[in-house]
Amino acid sequence: MDITKLTVHELKEKLAKKELTVQEITKAYVDKINEKEKDIGAFITTLCDEALEEAKDIQEKIDAGEIKGELAGIPIGIKDNMCTKGIKTTCASKMLENFVSPYDATVVEKLKKQHMIDLGKLNMDEFAMGASTEYSAFHITRNPRNLNTVPGGSSGGSAAAVAANLVPWALGSDTGGSIRQPAAFCGVVGLKPTYGLVSRYGLVAFASSLDQIGPITKDVEDAAILLNVIAGHDERDTTSENREKVDYTKCLKNDVKGLKIGVPREFFGEGINEEVKEKLEAAIEKYKEMGAEVEEFSLDIADYALATYYIIACAEASSNLGRFDGIRYGYRTPEYSNLKELYKKSRSEGFGEEVKRRIILGTYVLSSGYYDAYYKKAQQVRTLVMNEFNKGFEKYDVILTPTSPTVAFDIGSRSNNPLEMYLADICTVSVNIAGLPGISIPVGVDKEGMPIGMQLIGNRFQEETILNAAYTLEQEIKFRENHKPEFKKWDIFGLSQMFQKEEK
Predict the structure, then answer these.
(1) pTM of the complete model
(2) Has residue 95 been placed in a domain?
(3) I want to staple 153 with a disulfide (CB 3.0 to 4.6 A). Which of 67, 115, 133, 466 is the partner?
C-alpha cells in the first residue's frame, strides 16, 4: 500500500483503527518528498526532519491519551505567503528571502490546534501574482502530470504537491483564481471560500478585498474537512464574518435531485478549448441524469470582469506592497548614497518583473487624473458584476463554468506575454470580484492525459451547496479511479517523451 495515495479521510480512518501510526504516515510523505521534489519543485522550505520528530512526539501523546482529535498527526503543506512562526515566509520573493515571521497566521494556529504536521512551505508566483508559478524568485514548479507544463498559479506549489502525493492536502490562497486554476491544471480539488469566511490574518496581502485562503485536496470530502478546520470568525481580521459554525462534511449527501444549475453561455464561447468544452458538456449531462435541473442563461460579465479585476488588484497591490521599503524588514540594497536611493534600489532589486509591472499599473490607476477614469470606474463595474450574480442566484442554486479555458500550458509559452497569461484567469476572477465561493473539480482529461477542471459557483456562504454538487458528480465520474496519471518525465533536451506509470 502506498500511504501517500490515500485521502485524508482514509488516513484518518486508519489512524483511528490503529492500522497506521503517525510516524508511518509522516515517513511515507518525507520519503516521497525526497524522491520527487527535485523534479517538481513544489516547496520553498521543507521541514522533513522537524516533521519526523513531531510525528514521534504526537504519536506518544496519542498513545498516552494526552492528545485527542481525528486530524492529529495528519501532515499538511502551507503556501509560502502565510506567516509561520519561526519558519521563513518568503512569498517566493527576493524581498522576503530571509524573513522569519514572529507569529502564526490564524489558519496556521488552527492547524496547530488540530496537531497537524507541517511538511513545509510551498512555492508560488511571487506575492501571489501569476498564473503559472513561473514567477517565483527561487525556482519554477512543474506539473506532476507532465513536467514540461506549468501547474498553474499562484498556488502552483500547493496543487503540484497534492497531485504528486508529496502532501495529503495543502492550503492555498485565491485572489483571482489562484486555488481553482492550479487545482484544475493538476487534477485535484480546489475550494475558494466566500470572502470573510476564513480569516486573512497573517496572510501577506496582495489585494485585500479579493484575497481568500482555502484548501487544495485530493477529493471533495477532504476539502470539506479542511474547511471545517479553517473557517470561522477572527476578531483580528476586520473583514471576517461572525457566523454560526457549520460542519461542511454533513452536506455531502450524494444527491442533486431538484438542484437548479445555471450555465452561462458567455463562458463557453470564443477562447474555450474544444476538449474542455466537451468534458464540461458531458458533466452537465451527468447532472441531468442525476435529477438536477440545468439551464443555459446569460451572465454578461465576462468581457468586463477581467479588466475590472486587474485594475482593482493592481491598485491594492501597489498600496499593500508599499510597506516593503528596505527599512523595517525584507531586502535592503547593500549600496546606496541617500534615503531615496535606498528605497529605489531596494524595491528595484527586491521585486521581480511581474510584481513591479503590477505595482506600476496600480500606481497609475490610483494617480491624480486617472483615479476616476480607471479605479473608480472599476469599482462601479464591480457592483454591476455582483448584481449580475445576484440575479443569477435568484433563479439558480449553482452556476457552472469551466475553471480554465485550456488545460495546463507549456512552461515558458506565456511568461513573456503578460496579456496572454492574464487571460488564464478569465473564468475565475469574477468570483473574487463578487466575493463568492467557488470550487474546481477535475471532470476528465484531454487526449494528452492533462486534467480538465469544472468550476461550481455558489451564492455567498453557500459552500454547502457547491460542496454537495461537486461531491455528487465526483462520486459519479470517479476521476481519481478512472484517470490514474501517467507522469511524463522532464526531458531537458526536448528529444523524447519518457513515461513513468505509477504503480497500481
Answers:
(1) 0.95
(2) yes
(3) 133
Lay out the sheet containing 438-445: strands in order across: 43-46, 117-122, 75-79, 169-173, 213-217, 189-192, 438-445, 451-458, 398-402, 260-264, 293-297
CA distance readout (Å), 394 to 163, 387, 390? 36, 11, 6
Q: Give buried/exposed letters for 37-58 (b at 16+ CB in 10 A, else e).
A: beebbbbbbbbbeebbebbebb
Is residue 322 a part of any domain in this protein? no
How far is CA 477 from its chain centroid?
Answer: 23
Catalytic residue among 101, 155, 158, 178: 178
CATH number where 65 lies: 3.90.1300.10
**H-type alpha helices, 6-82:** 8-16, 22-40, 48-63
64: in domain? yes
Nearest to 445 by CA among 396, 500, 490, 408: 408
Task: For residue 346, indicate whether it is catalytic.
Answer: no
Say how far apart CA 419 and CA 416 lie, in whole Å.
9
Letter for the amino acid at 32? K
* Catalytic residue, candidates 12, 79, 279, 488: 79
Q: What is the mean pLDDT of the chain?
A: 95
Q: pLDDT (tens digit, 9 = 90+) per residue, 231-245? A: 999 999 999 999 999
The identity of residue 223, as a single letter, is A
- Amino acid letter, residue 330: G
Q: What's the 3-state SS for 287-330? A: HHHCCCEEEEECCCCHHHHHHHHHHHHHHHHHHHHHHCCCCCCC
* 319 included as an active-site residue: no
Q: Does residue 154 have an active-site annotation?
A: yes
Kindly give the parts of the chain with pLDDT less than 50.
492-504
pLDDT computed for residue 315 by the predictor: 98
Question: Does residue 377 form part of some domain?
Answer: no
Domain that holds residue 155: 3-302+382-501
Number of domains present in the structure of the chain: 1
